[in-house]
Each structure stands twice: as C-alpha cells, then as structure tokens.
Amino acid sequence: MIYSKSCWHSVTIIKCRTLYKYIYLYLSFLLLFLNFFAHSATNEQIQAIQQAAENYVINHIERSKKGKLDAKAASLDPRIFATDCPSPLSVYSPPLHTSSNNVTVLVQCKEDNWKAYIPVRIISYTPKIIATKLLYRGHIISSKDVRISMVNLHRFQQRGFSSLNMVIGAKIKRNLYKGNIIELKDICVVCRNQKITIKVVKKNITITVNGIAIADGVIDEQVKVKNTKSNRIIEGIVTGVKEVTVRL
Prior knowledge:
The protein has helices at about 5-40, 45-60, and strands at about 70-75, 90, 100-110, 115-130, 145-150, 170, 185-190, 195-200, 205-215, 220-225, 235-240, 245. By secondary structure, it is α+β, with helices and mostly antiparallel strands. Strand 9 (about 205-215) and strand 10 (about 220-225) form a beta hairpin. One of its GO terms (biological process) is bacterial-type flagellum assembly.
C-alpha cells in the first residue's frame, strides 16, 4: 500500500502531539513530587516535634515525689509538613493525670501556620519492695532478702510496700520468687494466733501487756488482739514485729 506525503505528514503531527502530551504529564507529576517532598519534615524537625510533646507531658502531669515519669511520643509520618519554626513550638493538651496511659498533644508553629497532633504514651513508675531471691513460706524477712525497685504503676495495681522498714522482720505467708513484688497479702508483721506485745498508751503513760493476735496485720494496719490477762478483745495499730499499740 502506498501513502501520499500529506498522509505521512498528518501521522507524524499526531504522534508528536501525543509524545508532547506524555512529556507534559510526566513533567507535571515530577514537579508535584519534588514540591511535595521539598515541604516534608526533615528528621531533625520530626525529632524536635516529638521532644516538645514529651517535655510538655513530663512537665505538666502531676506525680508523686517518690515516683518517676516517662513519656514516649509516637512515630510520625515523614511526609508531614513542618518547618524550622522561628520561635519555640507551642504545645497544648487536655488536662493530664497520672492515671492516663495515653494522651494526644497538639504541637504547632503559629508563624509558619502548621500544626501536628502527637500521641504520647505515659509511663508512671513507683517504688515497690521486691524479693531478691526465693523466699519460702514461714521465712522471716531480713534486709538481704528484699530491695526497692521502680515498678510500672499501670502494670501493677495491687497494694505493695514502698519502705523496707514495713517488711523487714515480717513473716512470709506464701512462697515468693526472685523479682516478685511483695504485696499486702504475702506477709504478716503480726500473725494470727501469734503471741504479741500490746502497748496501751494514754497521754504520757504506756502500759505493756501480753496478748494474742486475732488476725494477720502489717505495719500501720488496724487489727484485733486479745489481752491474755483479761481476755478482752481490743483493736490496735501494728507498730512493729509482734507489736500492737492501742491508744486510749
């Protein structure tokens, strides 16, 4: 088949137009791609945003004097828009409480008109007494058997002890393994049916009598005891090993 020159000329023009169209689309997408990443946050900017969120949480949440607090900002999408803010970043959040596990913090740069919502995980630690080795039922705790360790408050909800003086001299009620947190139910400083000393205090006068514990108790806990001389059952506060104080 033979085509005329005019026909070939028309085909060439159509092909050229199609080629130019594809080149134009390619360049448009390329410019859009480069423009997008030119405004994406750098690693340093992302770290600054995370650090601002973490510092805000640590500085504004209520915590106990003996406790410890840690805050960890979530990973951010590197495609977010951010700049080197000319002034310190502004940070806001709802009221913070130690009972909260997570909080969302707003970090923004008003001058450059951008903001980011950052999830932050809150970890609260509190001092608790733990066993340093295997302790068998009936064992009397000494200073070598226990130590203070910082424990994640959200993972440990039971009643424990924060002072060594509250457990040293106590009797183990069940086997405890190394690293176990010593809970209220694990020990007794005054034990049921145990012979104890009852201190009866009235103003500046203290009388000491013998007695029997009616129930288990730990330091500062109220327990019932029986005066072996009068057989009278009274209530007092555990103040030491095998010792209960009754204030009149």
